[in-house]
Amino acid sequence: MSNLNSLIDGLKNLKNELYEKDFLLTWEKSLDDLKIVLGVAETLKCLRDNNISTRIFESGIGVSQFRDNSTRTRFSFSKACDLLGLYVQDLDEGKSQVAHGETVRETSNMISFLAEVIGIRDDMYIGAGNTYMREVAKSLHEGHQEGVLPERTTVVNLQCDIDHPTQSMSDLLHLKNYFGSLENLKGKKIAMTWAYSPSYGKPLSVPQGIIGLMTRFGMDVTLAHPKEYKLLPECMEVAKKNAGLSGGKFTYTESMEDAFKNADIVYPKSWASFEVMEKRTDLLKKNDNEGLKKLEKECLAQNATYKNWECDEAKMKLSKNGKALYMHCLPADITDVSCKAGEVSKSVFEKYRVETYKEAGFKPYIIAAMILTSRIKDPVKVLTMLKERNIKRILG
Amino acid sequence: MSNLNSLIDGLKNLKNELYEKDFLLTWEKSLDDLKIVLGVAETLKCLRDNNISTRIFESGIGVSQFRDNSTRTRFSFSKACDLLGLYVQDLDEGKSQVAHGETVRETSNMISFLAEVIGIRDDMYIGAGNTYMREVAKSLHEGHQEGVLPERTTVVNLQCDIDHPTQSMSDLLHLKNYFGSLENLKGKKIAMTWAYSPSYGKPLSVPQGIIGLMTRFGMDVTLAHPKEYKLLPECMEVAKKNAGLSGGKFTYTESMEDAFKNADIVYPKSWASFEVMEKRTDLLKKNDNEGLKKLEKECLAQNATYKNWECDEAKMKLSKNGKALYMHCLPADITDVSCKAGEVSKSVFEKYRVETYKEAGFKPYIIAAMILTSRIKDPVKVLTMLKERNIKRILG
Amino acid sequence: MSNLNSLIDGLKNLKNELYEKDFLLTWEKSLDDLKIVLGVAETLKCLRDNNISTRIFESGIGVSQFRDNSTRTRFSFSKACDLLGLYVQDLDEGKSQVAHGETVRETSNMISFLAEVIGIRDDMYIGAGNTYMREVAKSLHEGHQEGVLPERTTVVNLQCDIDHPTQSMSDLLHLKNYFGSLENLKGKKIAMTWAYSPSYGKPLSVPQGIIGLMTRFGMDVTLAHPKEYKLLPECMEVAKKNAGLSGGKFTYTESMEDAFKNADIVYPKSWASFEVMEKRTDLLKKNDNEGLKKLEKECLAQNATYKNWECDEAKMKLSKNGKALYMHCLPADITDVSCKAGEVSKSVFEKYRVETYKEAGFKPYIIAAMILTSRIKDPVKVLTMLKERNIKRILG
User: Fewer Cβ in 10 A, N or C end of chain A?
Assistant: First the structure.
């Protein structure tokens, strides 16, 4: 329990600006805010590991809205809500009247009476997902101001077209645990690289989120991808600026090998270029199925010219002592397991499989921390109360 | 907290006949019962506004069954259940075996072990929705008598072909708040009027519910619709009778302007006539798609002859001091927002938008009050216990 | 409450090997383990009947995965979870990425962070359902060993191709209650017989589960079916062996009348033969719709030659004093109610209808007992704490 005390103490000198704020992009948050989210997540984990209930709500609702398929994040959101005592009500647009011409403003208010948080995944359309979240957030803000909503229900971004903050923050917590501290991440080289996959249309939010976040902590962030697989220009700018401010580095290369060279961490993952995603967005909006099929075919053909962008044993040998930490948001396209040729070879993946599972295991706590800090003004006080209240999570 | 005490005190002299009873039609309930539901709803709201937990169940299930799409009521039911500590299990007939020939009696019993309440929406078929609810309620009653069900699980009508009591009671609570008291509603003129919408097949339960409920409180209820848009004759009878007993008035006019004249409250809303709904019910039962298309076309053509039935600034000027309270169950068909021409002009709606949101915000509390009073014999005692127990809803 | 004390006392001398174990087949469990599950189920029921909360989890998740339709078991699982304080998160493969090539191992781990239990129904494919459950269980075991999962999340079989333990154990608890004790079941004759139904493809798990379980308790188990409707050979072996060990009997007959003769209990239910199920499994895997239609046609024709296998008044007269207890897992195919000719006549079913409902009512408690015993090392201690803690389930 000394660990628990030191975790809570660690939160005390940080300036907290998270209360009643949405969590949409990590680069809109101060360094202190990011550290608070990490610290609250660790404290919640420590409490649960010591069989102490983290239920801060006797009743309350968390709303989820998934505009794209999801298993991991859906479960992580549910678990985060459950950790805090919230019941999850899913907004399934197929079953609702949302499609029948309701305004976002109205729906946002209607689903938010008595709700603490809305978690939204909306990552299919470039230029749309984050915009939608901001529209919801604005509606909730106004609804609260106007006396419609008793609380300022907040929005948590469960993946959009720009960022995937619950993923990147879980990844960061994993790195903090793996290397011992945030301080230890300074100067560590992380290779965020594109990798081959026999599929197309994967969102850009993970690589964008990683380069936008890891540059905050003085890391040496190297982005690698074939020239066609560009990220959003504004995300590149963010990463550049962050690296400058934190004393880190942000470099770009068109060689996976270069990126792996001497890397402490590698994050090989497939994505589509933002230009392709923009074309796809247009075609989806027009319901142009012929166009979509044509685009897919072209993209798969282009992908296929980069089959050598696989994270295999040879490339791993280039990394620091041949032992870089392999990361992935999962599910990975594993050669000879989930496909004939993919992002990572079977042997590399299997070596790091347990680590990737642990990486994923932080997500419920990160989401819970985002909810808690948006709804609780003084997290130190409340976490201390949880510790002292000492209600067993499991009776016995 | 003095408000809390006076709310609880206000419940003390009312005769309570709600325990172990279903809530199907407001006109089956005594005036005292209606006042208890309002009072319990207000008390629950006051408790929550003071951060006091309203959790009366440590465990327990609320079952929802939506035989028609729903966002608002689905969320309201979930929130009502959560307020009281109940977990919601949805009966999705698509995923169940219900469609495979099970009797209503059996299913009703099977889903109700350990369940406190079943909330049902069944509003598509004239003559069917309320009938189905009664069949479920009868099965639950027998199941309880026979020792199958440990509790008399109760049914709450979340909208049927006849009434929409959770809506009309929320509307009443909104009026009580807006005008200060139920007493103040006496003599107030409410215009429940048909309005144009470019759609057809909207249920009759809202206008029927409004004329059936508001006539209980001495209001001057004016129903207005084009001659083709008749409500169910039995609902007209109910309203007439209620007005006689309460010292109110119930009048009918075929002019929207007449209805608005000097009105304190206007409730302009589209609906289909019961004759159309009966035809539609027949065609739906026969799966006669051709017939349905033809009926829709005819109805839309008929609708179109009444496009001037829009709640616009000119008509609002006819109301009491030009300032009648505009009400709607939402979503409204707003001209130039959700359609080219609809129930209400953009400017009128925007003026009252926040009020309509607040109106909707009462629904979770009304449903919670209906559940609480059907499951708790002595609400005054239990609400007092909640107050004195004083468990914080949010820790802090 | 003396009943409560004696129920808890009854658990004290039993050797408990249920902790951190999956519940997949009753015949993998010791007699003591089965008695513990029954006893815990009864204790939970007694606590709830005395309005004492059985919430042992302040937070926690139960995952459900239904690979076949279900109403009863879905509701029973939810209620079991709710009884213990768990929130249910359903794994809907349609909405998830499971179908996109994820390995079972990965998904099992991903959905199980912070989850106490996964309840799985997978009964469509011979040779597949139980196998899948074991694969999930193995993944969870490894995940726990590897430090990925903080708890050894356990698997509860909610029906597979081999056994239906939550059904057979509920049936056993019903029998225990009906006849007064497990001891009283010794020597009682139970006729598990095939019955005619105008449908095909019904799983074999219920008859297999019944002959596998009831032979453990010294019962005289008679299996009857037309020669074509064979059960899995390994299940026949299990029943034979069990009967030998318990001092019971296991016999097979091709005559429904023989089986009913002098029976204390009759359980007439339709099923497909395992050979048909194997053929169907192959065709389903091949998506051979023509083959499936042909198979269905053949099977229905074969079924029709056994229309006289109906549990009617005449056959009931053959049973012990003409008063055997009729059992069914529901829904039954009732002649002149749910079909023209079915498993049971209307008059027989109606006579025993309430008993079959009560039989079904044990299932939430059986599932809750399976979860509790897999997650709690010392159930006697925890049940005693629940009793002494004495928190009201409903306030009042």
Answer: N
Q: What is the ipTM of this complex?
A: 0.95
Measured distance CA(B214)–CA(C232) in Å, rounded: 66
CATH 3.10.20.30 fits A166-360, yes or no: no
Is the previous residue joined to A364 through a cis bond, with omega within 30 degrees of 0? no
The torsion of the CA quartet C94, C100, C101, C106, rounded to 10 degrees, works out to -70
Higher pLDDT among residues B4 and C100, named by residue? B4
Q: Do A385 and B396 touch (CB under 8 A)?
A: yes
Question: Domain spans of chain C?
Answer: 2-163+363-389, 165-360
Nearest CA in chain B to A384: B396
In angstroms, rounded to a whole number, what is the distance separating the alpha carbons of residues C82 and C74? 12
Closest CA in chain A for residue C111: A75
To the question of pTM greater than 0.90 for the whole model, the response is yes
Q: Tell me the CATH architecture of domain C165-360.
A: 3-Layer(aba) Sandwich (3.40)
Among the partner-chain residues A101, A111, A148, the one whose CB lies closest to the CB of B71 is: A111
For the four alpha carbons of C137, C139, C140 and C145, in that order, the dihedral sign comes to: positive
Which chain C residues are within 8 Å of A338, Cβ to Cβ? 101-103
Q: Angle of helix C379-389 relative to helix C2-9, nearest 10 degrees?
A: 160
Q: Which residues fall within 8 angstroms of residue B209, CB to CB, at 6 or more apart?
A: B26, B163, B164, B165, B167, B168
Residues in A closer than 8 angstroms to C143, CB to CB, are: 357
Q: Which CATH number is B167-360's, of 3.40.50.1370, 3.40.50.1820, 3.40.930.10, 3.40.50.300?
A: 3.40.50.1370
Q: pLDDT by residue (tens digit) across A85-128?
A: 999 999 987 655 444 445 889 999 999 999 999 999 998 888 88
Check residue C201 and give left, alpha or beta (phi > 0: left; psi -120 to 50: alpha). left
